[in-house]
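Quick one, probably user error.
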């Protein structure tokens, strides 16, 4: 059984932090389909549209009928571990640093067999297992066989902890503590075992609801942070930048406005200033130290979370300028991800549907509660995914957007 992870010892500040090593990153264009599924937390394999044969490894043509029509479909991953071994040598530095590796051959119920990592809680072969596809430290899909039923402390297994961004024992910056989402976020991170949480407060002189409750949580420290002010962001980075393991950027400016409903550009500018430039300021101030601490022992820097909006995918005209600012933030977040990937910091983009707050009052339910959004962010960190579409509305919009972005654009225009 996996040993529960314990609170890491305080680091000797004189010791140098090593650079992270990464598992091999090269994948073929077809194999990236596996990564695309893992990024959303789904184990997908190609299934032949002509004969129904499930394929693994990913390929250009069906192994049974040579058809080229091989769309990706979610799999339950059940199967039998039929053989296993322990690897005591590797030419790859990343693998060599973490020897030995338990690997095995799983015959999936869906048909194909796969060589996979085997979690240490899986009994000796032959045994039933559940294969999932996880993003590894290179942000590429890797298959791992887990026990058929969850075991205690399963997530604390070193191999699995490397692939995820579990908030347990980590130090986290939540950029906006004044909103209901920010406050729910802090509480749920505490429940998930976070070591320390800094909650940003743009106007510390203002007494806003929830401040006292938040300040009374021992793990939470309120700090002045205004994303529209470059100096404020840099001062904070100077103070705590070297300790933050996870950044959760939930600060946003949101008004229900389209092009013609509000004259002038003041609101649009304010939205861009927080939602887009705020992210840029934050990334420039906190990005370098986060990247430098990616191999900093068992409580290393691991993740950057952006709370975007499903409106980032396709403009929702009633909230047109807000949608545009979130689309800009989404594009920047993709750039941030590409830069962070080289240092094994995972950038998680969260796309919530309409949240049950004052700016979405005129939108029909279902709407997301702040605690449901906070819960799904904690889940995303624990499972180590990259993209999260939170709530029924966001899921449906995402599916429609993936199916045909033009059709979604027309539907939203009505
Ligand atoms: Zn076929």
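Nope, works fine. Designed sequence:
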């Amino acid at each position: 059984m996996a040993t529960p992870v314990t609170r890491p010892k305080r680091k000797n500040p004189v010791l140098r932090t090593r650079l992270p090593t990464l598992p091999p990153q090269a994948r073929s264009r077809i194999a990236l389909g596996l990564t695309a599924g893992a990024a959303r937390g789904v184990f997908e394999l190609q299934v032949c549209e002509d004969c129904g044969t499930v394929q693994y490894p990913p390929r250009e043509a069906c192994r049974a009928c040579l058809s080229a029509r091989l769309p990706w479909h979610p799999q339950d991953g059940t199967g039998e571990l039929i053989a296993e071994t322990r690897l005591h040598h590797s030419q790859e530095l990343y693998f060599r640093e973490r020897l030995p590796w338990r690997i095995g051959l799983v015959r999936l119920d869906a048909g194909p067999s796969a060589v996979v990592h085997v979690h240490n809680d899986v009994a000796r072969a032959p045994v039933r297992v559940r294969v999932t596809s996880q993003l590894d430290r290179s942000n590429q899909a890797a298959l791992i066989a887990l026990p058929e039923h969850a075991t205690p402390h399963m997530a604390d297994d070193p191999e699995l902890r490397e692939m995820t961004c579990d908030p347990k024992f980590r130090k986290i910056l939540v950029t906006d503590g004044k909103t209901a989402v920010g406050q729910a976020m802090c509480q749920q991170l505490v429940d998930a075992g976070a070591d320390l949480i800094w909650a940003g407060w743009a106007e510390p002189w203002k007494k806003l609801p929830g401040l006292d409750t938040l300040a009374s949580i021992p793990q939470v420290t309120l700090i002045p942070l205004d994303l529209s002010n470059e100096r404020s962001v840099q001062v904070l980075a100077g103070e705590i930048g070297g300790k933050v393991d996870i950044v959760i950027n939930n600060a946003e400016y949101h008004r229900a406005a389209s092009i013609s409903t509000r004259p002038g550009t003041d609101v649009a500018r304010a939205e861009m200033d927080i939602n887009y430039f705020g992210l840029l300021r934050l990334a420039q101030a906190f990005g370098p130290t986060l990247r430098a601490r990616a191999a900093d022992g068992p409580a290393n820097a691991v993740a950057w979370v952006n709370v975007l909006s499903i409106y980032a995918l396709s403009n929702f005209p009633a909230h047109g300028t807000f949608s545009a600012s979130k689309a800009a933030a989404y594009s920047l977040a993709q750039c941030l991800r590409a830069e962070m990937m080289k240092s094994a910091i995972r950038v998680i983009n969260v796309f919530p549907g309409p949240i049950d707050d004052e700016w979405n009052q005129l939108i029909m339910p279902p709407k997301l509660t702040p605690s449901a959004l906070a819960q799904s962010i904690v889940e995303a960190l624990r499972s180590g995914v990259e993209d999260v579409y939170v709530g029924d509305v966001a899921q449906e919009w995402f599916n429609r957007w993936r199916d045909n972005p033009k059709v979604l654009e027309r539907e939203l225009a009505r």
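The CA atoms of residues 268 and 321 lie 6 Å apart.
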